[in-house]
Write a structure and sequence with these properties.
The structure holds two protein chains of two kinds.
Chain A: H1 2-17, E1 35-36, E2 38-39, E3 42-43, E4 52-56, E5 65-69, E6 76-79, E7 94-95, E8 97-98, E9 101-102
Chain B: E1 11-13, E2 22-24, E3 26-28, E4 31-32, E5 36-37, E6 66-70, E7 79-83, E8 89-92, E9 109-110, E10 112-113, E11 116-117, E12 126-130, E13 139-143, E14 149-152, E15 167-170, E16 178-179, E17 190-197, E18 206-216, H1 224-249, H2 257-273, E19 280-283, E20 286-289
Parallel strand pairs in B: 16-18
Antiparallel strand pairs in B: 1-2, 2-5, 3-4, 6-7, 7-8, 8-9, 10-11, 12-13, 13-14, 14-15, 17-18, 18-19, 18-20
Helix pairs in contact in B: 1-2
Classes of the chains: A alpha+beta, B alpha+beta.
């Protein structure tokens, strides 16, 4: 119940401050128009949102992989790079495993 | 990132409630140890909270911890930068060594930018460290609760960073990250979490931005009685939210029974409204912002 109270209060705060906002595009002189990264032929879309990406050669094969944290059960996805560093390509993710089990952190 | 300097990379993570920090030690050959909470030298759980409190009383500021490990004082070991729900970025210096990290919660400090406490709009700070302008000094980039991504250039040194005020790299998300039925998202929604890297190996730094967005489902078709009921419930919701806001403005404590009573009424209203309103689906996408080459300055 406490968590519900806090989230509601936070939402009230955000609604007041984020009134007049522009679109979510980056400064057009710095970046190209943003695109969403795909894996296995569809958009990467994590459970209960809150995607947290990190690039790192997880399997030590000389190619950088994509790690994406999610809110759902506090798990972490590993997308192995099946392409190259210049043209990354991902299939289905595997969950990050630690201590012999799928790793989780408290998600409330 | 090798937190304990044993030659094997580790994984660290934050968490939502109460905002503890976790360390998964690398064991080699792709294996990792079970997660352990990072601890203060006194043995208490480490977090980013504004006021140091006991384990049984989590400081509300420390929720939604988002850590990044980097050497921020040039002494060769990993310090911790932790974004939190209040939108602050807290530095917890490593007062040990590269092989024996030691963190003291009481020595936390709030990162400043442009001479005042850094605070991102919409809370939920997600910091990362990278030399963005390639001047040999690491800068600070922070994702914000409203979906924006800000750059804070280091105008100091590697041993004593001094961050300038924010330069917006990615504007806030439109409409609190809610996408109308039938529309497509144009960019990140809310709660931006960022990785700054040369993603496509072209020599330019890019941004990967994870987000939280919602897409609306179609509106249900209602008869006159249902429309009247919906209007009544919406008015009640508005009234109860107004009372909730008044309590918050009077800084009534979160465990006050007035909140509990209001919360129960609100829950019932939301429940009754649900079948009469369009539902929504939650999403968390990863947006790739490909960096353009900086325009060349003209030599006169």
């Amino acid at each position: 119940m406490k968590r519900g109270l806090w989230v509601l209060a936070a939402c009230v705060g955000v609604a007041t401050s984020a009134r007049a906002v522009a679109s979510g595009a980056g400064e057009s002189d710095r970046f190209e128009k943003p695109v969403r990264i795909e894996a296995g032929g569809k958009l990467i879309d994590v459970e209960i949102g809150h995607a947290a990406p990190w690039v790192y050669d997880f399997d030590d094969d000389g190619k950088r992989d994509l790690l994406v944290g999610q809110f759902g059960s506090g798990k972490l996805r590993i997308y192995r790079n099946e392409g190259t560093d210049k043209a990354p390509k991902y299939g289905e993710p595997q969950w990050f495993v630690a201590g012999g089990a799928v790793a989780t952190v408290p998600a409330g | 990132m090798d937190l304990d300097g044993d030659g094997l990379d580790d994984v660290i993570s934050g968490s939502y409630w109460p905002g503890d920090l976790f360390w998964f030690a690398g064991l080699g050959e792709g294996k990792y140890a079970a997660g352990e909470k990072l601890k203060d030298v006194s043995g208490k759980d480490l977090n980013s909270g504004g006021t140091w409190k006991s384990e049984n009383e989590p400081d509300m500021e420390s929720l939604a911890a988002a850590p990044h490990a980097a050497d921020l004082d040039g002494d060769g070991d990993f310090d911790l930068l932790v974004g939190n729900i209040a939108g602050h970025v807290i530095l917890i210096p490593n007062e040990g060594t590269a092989t024996e990290p030691k963190f003291t919660g009481a020595h936390r400090r709030t990162i400043q930018a442009g001479g005042e406490d850094l605070r991102v709009e919409g809370g939920d700070a997600g910091p990362t460290i990278v030399d963005w302008d390639r001047d040999g000094r690491d800068d600070l980039i922070v994702g914000a609760g409203n979906g924006a991504v800000n750059l804070y250039r280091n105008e100091g040194t590697a041993k004593e960073p001094r961050y300038a005020k924010a330069v917006v790299l990615v504007s806030p998300g439109a409409n609190y990250g809610t996408i109308a039925h039938g529309s497509e998202a144009a960019g990140p929604g809310m709660r931006a979490k960022v990785c700054a890297t040369d993603y496509d190996g072209d020599g330019q730094l890019d941004l990967l931005v994870g987000d939280f967005s919602s897409t609306m489902l179609p509106e249900p078709v209602l008869d006159e009685a249902q429309k009247a009921k919906k209007a009544e419930l919406e008015a009640e919701r508005e009234r109860l939210n107004g009372e909730y806001q008044k309590l918050a403005e009077k800084a009534v404590k979160p465990d006050d029974p007035q909140y509990q009573a209001l919360s129960e009424k609100l829950s019932k209203v939301y429940q009754d409204l649900r079948p009469l309103e369009a539902g929504s689906e939650m999403h968390g996408w990863v947006w790739f912002f490909r960096g353009k080459a900086a325009p060349k300055t003209v030599q006169r």
